[in-house]
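To assess whether the prediction recovers the assembly geometry, we first specified each molecular entity separately, as shown.
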Amino acid sequence: MSAAAPRSPRRSSGRPRGADSTARREEILATAAQLFSAEGYRGTSMSGVARACGMSQTGLVHYFPTKDDLLQAVMDRRDEIDTAQVRAPAEGRPRGWEFLESLVDLVRHNQGQPGIVRLFTTMAGEAVDPGHPANTWLRRHHRVTADQIRAALAEAAEDGRLAGDAPVGSIVRTVIAAMDGLQIQWLSDPGCPDMAEDFAVLVDALRRRWGG
Amino acid sequence: MSAAAPRSPRRSSGRPRGADSTARREEILATAAQLFSAEGYRGTSMSGVARACGMSQTGLVHYFPTKDDLLQAVMDRRDEIDTAQVRAPAEGRPRGWEFLESLVDLVRHNQGQPGIVRLFTTMAGEAVDPGHPANTWLRRHHRVTADQIRAALAEAAEDGRLAGDAPVGSIVRTVIAAMDGLQIQWLSDPGCPDMAEDFAVLVDALRRRWGG
DNA sequence: CCTACCGATCGGTAGG
DNA sequence: CCTACCGATCGGTAGG
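The predicted structure of the complete assembly is given in tokenized form:
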């Protein structure tokens, strides 16, 4: 309507610069991960993410059409990094109980990544609701972790290193629960000591009780 | 200040009915607990709580001047009920490892109270942030629970039922972590089995490892 | 029909 | 406890 509308299409009228879209996506994912971890999904706004990236809200929507799309991309990226961390250290991952003990290293590694830990804990708290957009992610994350631990215990059994009456399901769920729960205490209390040491105590107790 | 201030306290001029204020408070606390557990603190609005109680938002503000006040009252009430549950079953609470085993009953009891479990888990997820209004509650809740478990382990030590080199702090934190973490899995996955059984497996393993 | 955004604004709701 | 509002911001979409 205004006569001041830009009429020189060959100048820097429309978009500012032809920034690389892959780099932009990465920047958005990193920024969104930080905001989701600090404020939760519900507490984070698309315009807030856009502002933190130095772009407009509509520019953000170009990359991620909905808030849900952005969330899925952020959590998928988190799991990619995480999976790489669990599998990579040794080329073939540790066998049997040694895999459980290698999770102690993962917990120790996580202590250097408070942002990642915070993202997981904050999202898990919201996503327990079956209607939450991250519920599917949360359950898949737990299922994948459970499958890995279960496979390791099956190897232990093959090697004669697991009691025949060991409650495998309970062991799996308790190990995952301890990792999740220790993160809550560690994040909420700045004076909370080493998570890895606590977790090692659990693995040791379980192995002594049901290991061969 | 205003000249329109209600001057006829005997008529039904201002407020609709002289509802009992204590009953109203209880109703608000129960309703708010439900909404906080479903939507989180950030996802719950004062006007939403008011609507669910069939009152106006300003009416609600009369009872709880700020959203923070409402939150504190809800969480304090939750802990009151919870503490009564832990202490009451036996008149004097179980001694030593038996207290740890009595926590299995608490976990079993919680399975009949999904609303309470959900409130705790949702709030814990948000409140890991030191700037969150429920952070103080979360840390106090964990500290009180930790003190109880530590006291029980001290009794076990007195009775010669605890190894001298037992890592008491790690045991305490791991037990709490397992309770918190099992709730996440149990809430998020409708097909998840008995939390109490899983938790009992942990207590058994810890007792066999460090019990006398 | 594409990428990479812009300034402006929609109807509705937040805590107070 | 009510009506009547505030400054701001929500997720999402319009045309260009």
